[in-house]
Amino acid sequence: MAHPAQVGFQDATSPLMEELLYFHDHALMIVFLISVMVLYIIVCMITTNLSDKLILDSQEIETIWTVLPAITLILIALPSLRILYLMDEINDPHLTIKAMGHQWYWSYEYTDYEDLGFDSYMIPTQDLAPGQFRLLEADHRMVIPVESPIRVLISAEDVLHSWAVPTLGIKMDAVPGRLNQTAFIAARPGVFYGQCSEICGANHSFMPIVIEAVPLNHFETWTALMLEEA
């Protein structure tokens, strides 16, 4: 998760987020090279009084500074389009979960099971246990198996919400009357935090998302306990 004074992104937990991080570094390097080149040209123009008529009026130079930006845009666009299509891929999910946004909490329903669902509220500050994070802990976590494709169906019951977990590379709007879907794979066990990312009213800051990725046998034990309680 994020920590104070963090400059970069959170560590990637899903293959998709790893791709997004690689693309970020790729685009940032291109921007850095362009910035250095432009700064160099500006400094040269300011510090020298010499001029050359071949530079001031040259068809070859005009061709170069038209073609080079086009090539640069292609180098950025192709990886971007690849990741864009990867984000829409949903192939044979092992588990489907419906996340419903409310003012101001989330409810989860495991649609592959007959009666497995619960509401997830933020734990108030005064009730936090030692080591828990303020404004990020929920009384019920969304538990998923590790290394399994998970499909999440996202909607809302009242106003616009947004289901976002940065370390998984997920941000999907929850729109009343509309069912959006996304998919991810948790590559390692852990607890991953997110928050509603669409201003949805007075308590917008108090509806966290907590995902706990566990091995498959632990997930099966958890589902059995939840079904017994239901």
Automatic annotation (TrEMBL):
Q: Does the keyword Protein biosynthesis apply?
A: no
What stretches pass through the bilayer?
Answer: 27-51, 63-85
Q: Which residues are in the Cytochrome oxidase subunit II transmembrane region profile domain?
A: 1-91
Location, primary (coarse class)? mitochondrion
Q: What are this entry's molecular-function GO terms?
A: copper ion binding; cytochrome-c oxidase activity; oxidoreductase activity
Q: Which reaction does it catalyse?
A: 4 Fe(II)-[cytochrome c] + O2 + 8 H(+)(in) = 4 Fe(III)-[cytochrome c] + 2 H2O + 4 H(+)(out)
Q: Which family does it belong to?
A: Belongs to the cytochrome c oxidase subunit 2 family.
GO terms in the biological process aspect are: ATP synthesis coupled electron transport
Q: What does this protein do?
A: Component of the cytochrome c oxidase, the last enzyme in the mitochondrial electron transport chain which drives oxidative phosphorylation. The respiratory chain contains 3 multisubunit complexes succinate dehydrogenase (complex II, CII), ubiquinol-cytochrome c oxidoreductase (cytochrome b-c1 complex, complex III, CIII) and cytochrome c oxidase (complex IV, CIV), that cooperate to transfer electrons derived from NADH and succinate to molecular oxygen, creating an electrochemical gradient over the inner membrane that drives transmembrane transport and the ATP synthase.
Task: Cite the entry's keywords alphabetically.
Answer: Copper, Electron transport, Magnesium, Membrane, Metal-binding, Mitochondrion, Mitochondrion inner membrane, Respiratory chain, Translocase, Transmembrane, Transmembrane helix, Transport
Under the heading NCBIfam families, the entry gives: CoxB
Q: Give the required cofactors.
A: Cu cation
List, alphabetically, the InterPro entries matched.
CcO_II, CcO_II-like_C, CcO_II_C, Copper_CuA, Cupredoxin, Cyt_c_oxidase_su2, Cyt_c_oxidase_su2_TM_dom, Cyt_c_oxidase_su2_TM_sf
Domain Cytochrome oxidase subunit II copper A binding per the UniProt entry, residue ranges: 92-225
- Put simply, this protein is called Cytochrome c oxidase subunit 2
Cofactor: how bound = Binds a copper A center.
Q: How does it sit in the membrane?
A: Multi-pass membrane protein
Spell out the subcellular localization from the entry: Mitochondrion inner membrane
A single GO cellular-component term on record: mitochondrial inner membrane
